[in-house]
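Problem 3 from the worked examples.
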Amino acid sequence: MSMMLGNAMISIVTTSLAYLCGLKVYRKSNHSVWLNPLYTVTLLLFLLLPFLHMDVKTYEKGSSIFSILLQTAIVSLAIPVYKQYPLIKKNIKKITVGIVSGGLAGVVSAGAFAVLLGFKGNVVASLLPKAATLPVALSVSNSLGGTASLTILFVLFSALFSLIVGPRVLDRCNIKSKTARGLAMGVSAQALGANRSFQWGEEEGVMGSVGMTTTAVLVSVFIPAGMIIIAYL
């Protein structure tokens, strides 16, 4: 019992300090997308764990409190969504079209990418749900027989790429609509995109949150349904 408590304390303190360091670097870099704490903190923890003589499973158990806090933070996104409900209701048709087309594009592009590179089996299952938020993507990948580590890699790479390229594409295409910009980032870059949208403004952030959460639901439906249809063809 004391060993478990000790491992939990080490995991919590190490994670907190790593995050503070990553956040400081991110702010010093003028919020460079390449130095987002999600990636710098992950790398720092990866380097620190061997020095702490702690394996990944022990660290996961010790830092489980952060998963609970993350769920609370996600629920808190309902507050700005509620405040912007009249705006959502007003643009519901545009939002629906944007989310459905974006979710389908994410799944289809993943399938095309897998065919192009000749991926098979569990690699395809790990790649297909890349358009969803990480928890949903892991759940879908697991149900299809995918590999968790590959799914995490695909989701994070997809989110980082969209976070870097997305704002530039929106600017180049002269897209000024706050609704369109928020939805585009939420659908394509998931949580990172929603976070970037909130930096632009509350309206964009709300649309990013709506795009992120709804796309996750649609992807979790699209992929299993598509696999069933393919199996019957």
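Problem 4, a separate protein:
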Amino acid sequence: MPTCLNCKQPIIEDGQFCHHCGAKIVRERLTLWVFFAQLGQTVFNVDSGIWRTVGHLCYAPARVCRGYIEGVRKRYLKPVAYLFFVAGLYGLTLLLSDGEIRYFHEDFALGFTSYDDATGLSEEERARQLRPLALIFILLSIPILSLISRLIYRRAGFNLAEHLVINAYYMGQLLFLNLVLNFLKVPFPSLEENTIFYYLFMIVFLGYAWVLQVPTFQLRGVWTVISPLLFLLVMLFILGLFYGFGAELLLY
């Protein structure tokens, strides 16, 4: 009797799925055609957790964060998986864009690397040299920001692991939103020239903290303004420190 390759339990000979672990029974040999067909089905399937996660994080991020924390684990992509999915997509576009696309925090963090002009490098040249470290900075910032958010939002009652979930979704979605805004510059290059893009980005960057954190942590009264603002200031400071440290290592 044939057995499941995943759980080693007996399976029905003509069955499509294992009735023990639920895994799909694969009989055909892996080829390039099968590989790309499966990739396309995963990414472009409208029922895929990827697009459900992207969409809900855009207009109802608290539903995703609180849902995952409370046990909704099948509906949405896992927070770390989502972060790496968007980061990989972002990294690919960076390679193809020849420097036209920037990470969401570069304009802020570069202010922390504006030392004297000993390097002779412009701001854009400094950004280009530091850019390979950007994803590392983002990943390193998540546990630190989770400690900070646990302190700021201690009344919400979430533990550190739950804050890690919230901040992984938060940073992943910031990357995704910045990617979307950067693509607007392709058909409308005048956006950046007229500083419209910069102000649009500022609204999205600053506003999303409130969109996610106010309902997720169920803030009330004056704390709906003070707490997200304090979190944003700390986040920018931490990212700036990472960039400053990277500049010391790479540019001097």
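Solution to problem 4. The chain has a mean pLDDT of 76. The CA atoms of residues 22 and 185 lie 45 Å apart.
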